[in-house]
Amino acid sequence: xxxxxxxxxxxxxxxxxxxxxxxxxxxxxxxxxxxxxxxxxxxxxxxxxxxxxxxxxxxxxxxxxxxxxxxxxxxxxxxxxxxxxxxxxxxxxxxxxxxxxxxxxxxxxxxxxxxxxxxxxxxxxxxxxxxxxxxxxxxxxxxxxxxxxxxxxxxxxxxxxxxxxxxxxxxxxxxxxxxxxxxxxxxxxxxxxxxxxxxxxxxxxxxxxxxxxxxxxxxxxxxxxxxxxxxxxxxxxxxxxxxxxxxxxxxxxxxxxxxxxxxx
Length: 264
Description:
Layout: H1 2-26, H2 33-57, H3 65-82, H4 85-88, H5 92-109, H6 124-159, H7 172-196, H8 206-227, H9 233-260
């Protein structure tokens, strides 16, 4: 039942991807309301999946790598739904949908949905720590997507080759402002997530702590460079892409370690 909901959700996001590909092939972009509706439906089915799985587990559905990837995909879609309408109805949905499809298809295909044989009681602090940290990852993912949009538009301006996609991208100044806000939201949420991890009542594995602090320092350095104007907007956009790629790799390590050393 729950996996069927996830498959339907993936199909909704895939519809947005297919629509974008068709638009690219024709060379003519029209208002992306279809993408917004498709992503919105996908988000609803994601939420239904997490609700069904959570009720079955009796806790927040973050007990294995499969659920972590789905929760991350849900966080990406949730942050997208919360950003301003100027971004929701631009090509941001077209850039967001492929990432969500990639995360969910991988989760569905890979043999990582391993149920724990023992049903442990929920730890509210641990669940809060894990969920708020993944929501922060969602903000970092949207900053990465906005960074890709920024670089695409900057490249078109530099080469004086303005394709139809250009006219559906927010202005560079607006994109950079969105990147900055998303970075700050993600950083604040991730800070709360790290601090809450020390209230679980159990010692956290050292690898998890080091990896989490590494991600925190990475984004702190990007924000510090942005605040002191050491980094040009193009460099910040590039670092958002590289930073999220590194953070995603570290997330795999953190989750794998957590599965090897589960906390109640």
